[in-house]
Design a protein that fits this description.
Blueprint (H helix, E strand, L loop, with lengths): L16 E4 L8 E6 L6 H7 L8 E6 L3 E4 L12 E4 L6 H20 L8 E6 L2 H10 L5 E7 L20 E7 L7 H13 L5 E5 L7 H9 L1
């Protein structure tokens, strides 16, 4: 049998994001919005329309791994394309790559202003793990982390008084009929956060695994 080895090489690549609102230097707030599994940035940005008050810049980075969805039979032109933040395969390098990407995106916004405004991080579904890792890295000073329909990445250090997540306002937003953020998973997450004495808020709405316009507008204005 051949002696198969794997190795890695770092390469430059082009990432895509969607945005709406005023230019970086004219915005009162920046919202970085992370889509869920199988979504694309532009479509997710449309779902964040409740944030559009004319003074918020909303930037939705798109995950680096795209794929065709649905039945593989037939023309590729007929199938929807989605994106994924990572899988279990080679996960540490996937995480490193997207953290580097997010750092670069934020730096490009900061380069356009003298003093950055407050940064809010909103994440949906699979994006909550990605966003919480980014905030926990300390690379972004987020005043708020909104985890919607998903949980904080399980491996993160949240007990230390110096943990960056303890310096941001953490909000868990849950649909009462969410088939993924089930009561059992949410109870386990709350027990973990309570044990770590990490302050957080829970906000619920009558709905499933989706953003809710009225709830998002209420959160943004609070």
């Amino acid at each position: 049998m051949a002696d198969i080895r794997t190795a890695h090489v770092t390469v430059p690549r082009t990432a895509r994001y969607a945005a709406f609102g005023p230019p970086p230097g004219e915005a009162d707030e920046w919202w970085i919005a992370f889509h869920g599994y199988g979504q694309l940035a532009a479509a997710f940005a449309e779902q964040c329309a409740a944030l559009d008050n004319g003074r918020r810049l909303v930037v939705a980075p798109e995950a680096l791994s795209r794929f065709y969805q649905g039945d593989l039979i037939g023309s590729a032109g007929d199938r929807r394309v989605g994106a994924s933040w990572m899988t279990r395969e080679d996960r540490e390098h996937e995480i490193t790559d997207y953290l580097r990407y997010l750092d670069h995106l934020l730096a490009s916004l900061c380069d356009a202003v003298a003093t950055p405004p407050p940064v809010h991080v909103l994440a949906f579904s699979q994006g909550t793990a990605t966003a919480s890792r980014w905030v926990a890295s300390g690379r972004v000073r987020a005043v708020r982390l909104v985890c919607w329909g998903g949980l904080i990445a399980p491996e993160l250090e949240i007990t230390s008084p110096s943990a960056p997540l303890r310096g941001t306002r953490v909000q868990l937003v849950l649909g009462l009929r969410d088939q993924f953020a089930t009561p059992e998973r949410v109870a386990a997450e709350r027990a973990r956060l309570d044990e770590a004495e990490l302050p957080y808020e829970v906000i619920t709405f009558d709905g499933g695994h989706r953003l809710d316009h009225a709830t998002l507008a209420r959160i943004a204005s609070a």
